[in-house]
Amino acid sequence: MDELNKKTSSYTEDSIELLEGLEGVRKRPAMYIGSSNQTGLHHLVWEVVDNAVDEAMSGYGDKITVTIHKDGSLSVLDEGRGIPVGIHRQSKIPAVQLIFQTLHSGGKFSDSVYKSAAGLHGVGAAVTNALSEWLEVNVYRDGTIYYLRFENGGKLVVPLEEQGRTSKHGTLVTFKPDPLIFGNHEFKWDTIINHLQESAFLLKKVRFVIIDERANLKEEFYYEDGLREYIRIVNQSKTPLHDVFGFEDIVEVTSNGKKHELKIEIAMQYCNDDYGETILSYVNNVRTHDGGTHETGFKTGLTRVINDFAQDYNLLKNKAKLDGSDIREGLTAIISLRIPEDILEFEGQTKGKLGTPDAMQAVNNFLYTKMNYYLHENLPLATAIVNKALDSQSARLAARKAKDDARKIRKPKRELIISGKLTPAQSKEYAKNELFIVEGDSAGGTAKSGRNRIHQAILPLRGKPLNTDTNSMERMLKNEEYATLINTIGAGIGKDFDLEDAHYGKIIIMTDADTDGAHIQTLLLTFFYHYMKPALKAGMIYIAVPPLYRVYKEVNKKIVYRYAWDDESLEEAKKEMGRNYKINRYKGLGEMNADQLWETTMNPETRTLLRVSVNDPLLVEKRVSTLMGKDASLRRKWIEENVDFDEEDEFLKEPLK
Q1: Sorting pLDDT into bands at 50, 70 and 90, what band is 44?
Q2: In this model, does residue 404 exceed pLDDT 90?
Q3: For residues 309 and 476, what is the distance between their CA atoms, to the nearest angstrom?
């Protein structure tokens, strides 16, 4: 295991540092886990898994097992040293009890136990306990089995006790989320295996086993080559320019007069048919969605080394230096850093952006040195990368010139609407405009009548769109529906797509709340993913959420009503109405009156939208290739395992008012 993280010091009850007590987690769970929906439910799992990962990352244990049980509980077993069980000198209770009952307690606030760790805020185990109906801990340590149990949100009901002898070492944590907090939400097999596969890529040579006793499923992930295998899966549907290459080493930095070791690992691959860039970064196995100093250092180092190589071999041909965006076009890169706790800085509470200043220069110099040597040793590959960047530069400069020429002419752009069905918005304030892509002419007519004419445009679809995952761009462009959509948005496609030219700030997919509607959503999202990915990344694509039911009755010669979006809210609406109510079941958007569609689904003041994002390229690539690819057996297997098709089964979606 990693010599960077392996420690020879002891891990005892005195290693646990108490910062503050457990308060208010059950009252305001969103403050700690983000929400009480599926995302928050799985956050409980990640917090416990993080503790197991920290042990493996520090060199203790090479297997982590996660089991979903039939009763709705879940367990995480590691083969580490086992949580300390001795009496903590400050709190006067067993250290393992302290960890599960007190926020900000653990061995991760000092590098005497973990040189680098994922669970850096120390709230995880306690938060999971606080939001569980019950939680049990089995510790296998020093030849003894130790056990304790909590119930009703962290109340100790079985104090620490010995339960026999063992030759095992490690910790087993089993918990059942509290239905009072999470309702009927259940653990999702796909969500858990995707997260653990990502962990296996980052923590190579550690085996992750996932078992689902509910459906008799089992999956194992083990990677010898870590990040390189990660990139191969992310790019599996693309055409690579070369095989994945990468670099890994430990570098030394000096901060405040003290020397520190950073472990840096980078893997890279360019693809011919990809015109965007995908850079995934991690710090101590935690995804940094918002980048930070390590990503900045990577981009700076890459730009320097490619330009210097191109100049050394006279490849620029008297042209200007390559821009960073030209060099990164078609690039998939993964950056993973292990940073000691005492110099680790995140911006904000979510660990989403690295702020450690030393990481920028460290990654910059590391990548420049390693890649400079690699390029000179692999001249055909290096030349191909430079030529790809030069092609990107030429296309970018030509596009800029065409745009400048168009501005000089000052002629209004002619709108090319092939199908003739678009009902445009009247405003030219494009950022405020919304394009509703609607299923069918009937729903389109209703939406047209109910819309805000100033800022809302309606584009009805005729039938189901073409599957762009299994058809060529040439055939896609000949499709009337897609041709109309591309020209309506007005920003181009593929490498020519430019957000600045978009005629809409929001593009909203509005389909019926049935399986056909869900299929159309998936087909359209696949199109946006392949040909307008910057719009997805910018958060411009949304899913409308129309109601399924309207419960109404007459009171004092007036109609009073409540809308319901699912069976649970239907029951609530029926209770509110009391007796003598009637129910409208909306089989499609076309069955709604214009004022009803406006009130429930289109009015910015009252509607709910789902924002579509692509924060997890691994999940998206796997899902697109499974659901939209040519292998029907993979698609059938996925459908059989995921019969409750909902928003989490397509892309990560964020509720938005």
Answers
A1: very high
A2: no
A3: 39
> Which of the residues 20, 516, 567, 576 is marked catalytic?
516
What average pLDDT does range 482-501 have in this prediction? 86
153-183 per-position pLDDT tens digit: 888 999 999 999 999 999 999 999 999 989 8
CATH of domain 227-402: 3.30.230.10
pLDDT at 450 over 80: yes
Distance CA 216, CA 210 (A): 11
Structure tokens at 38: 């599926």
Question: What's 13-221's CATH class?
Answer: alpha beta
Strand order across the 582-585 sheet: 558-564, 549-555, 582-585
Beta carbons of 309 and 200 less than 8 angstroms apart: no
Using DSSP bridges, classify how beta strands 144-151 and 207-212 pair: parallel, antiparallel or unpaired. unpaired
SS percent in the chain: helix, strand, coil, step 5: 40, 25, 35
Average pLDDT for 329-351:
85
Based on the residue annotation, tell me whether 514 is a catalytic residue of this protein.
yes
Q: What does the alpha-carbon distance between residue 627 and residue 631 come to, in Å, rounded to a whole number?
A: 9
Residues 624 and 608: their CA atoms lie apart, in Å, by 25
Give the start-to-end residue ranges of the domains of the chain: 13-221, 227-402, 430-546+607-656
The CATH code of the domain at 430-546+607-656 is 3.40.50.670
| Predicted confidence (pLDDT) per residue in 610-635, tens digit | 888 776 666 666 666 666 555 556 55
* Element at 543 (helix H, strand E): strand 541-544
Is 227-402 the same fold as 13-221? no
- Listed residue (319, 314, 312, 323) closest to 376, CA to CA: 312
Short-list 45, 120, 127, 121, CA closest to 284: 120
> Is residue 516 annotated as a catalytic residue, yes or no?
yes
Give, as one character, the DSSP assignment of residue 236.
Answer: T
* Residue in 439, 469, 481, 648 annotated catalytic: 439
- Using alpha carbons only, how large is the chain's radius of gyration in Å? 27
The yes-or-no answer on residue 512 being catalytic is yes
Q: How confident is the model at residue 469 (pLDDT cuts 50, 70, 90)?
A: confident
Catalytic residue among 514, 572, 591, 599: 514
Six-digit token string for 103: 């926020």
Residues 354-380: tens digit of each pLDDT: 999 999 999 999 999 999 999 999 999
Rama region for 490: left / alpha / beta (φ>0; ψ in -120 to 50; rest): left
Q: Which of 176, 147, 152 is nearest to 70 (CA)?
A: 176
The reply to whether 358 belongs to the active site is: no
Cβ count near 244 (within 10 Å): 21
Helix (H, G, I), strand (E, B) or coil at 169: coil
Residue 119 has a CB neighbour count (10 Å cut-off) of: 24
Nearest CA to 196 among 55, 44, 353, 64? 64
Distance CA 501, CA 503 (A): 6
Whether residue 43 contacts residue 33, with contact meaning beta carbons closer than 8 Å, is answered with yes
Residue 326 DSSP class: H
What pLDDT, on the 0 to 100 scale, is given for residue 645? 43
Q: Which of 512, 621, 649, 650 is catalytic?
A: 512
CA distance 365 to 298: 9
> Which residue reads 């678009």 in tokens?
422
Q: Select the more confidently predicted residue: 173 or 405.
A: 173
d(CA 342, CA 386): 39
